[in-house]
Amino acid sequence: QVQLVESGGGLVQAGGSLRLSCAPSGSIPSIKSMGWYRQFPGKQRELVARITQSGSTNYADSVKGRFTISRDNAKNTVYLQMNSLKPEDTAVYYCSVERWGTADYWGQGTQVTVSS
Question: What DSSP assignment string belongs to 67-78?
Fold first, then answer.
């Protein structure tokens, strides 16, 4: 079974940067988009950023201008560059692969903690 392997989370001071990476362990057909979501304690998972196969992107308002999503189509790898991090960015971040007409894939989640 293909899994999404996430890396790059950790602890950083406010104003710092982190780069998250997500790569599948095998081939995934019918990809529509790849993205990053985050989940705060006791809250529902929310979209952070998303990028389609054609390169179109969309971001949550709270991260616009600070976070950048990119992808390597050849490797089906997606990245999230997070700059100017704030304590309110502290959450578990999940990688997602949205597919056409079939089930999506989710990563196991990586913790991002921003200290003040």
Answer: EEEEEETTTTEE
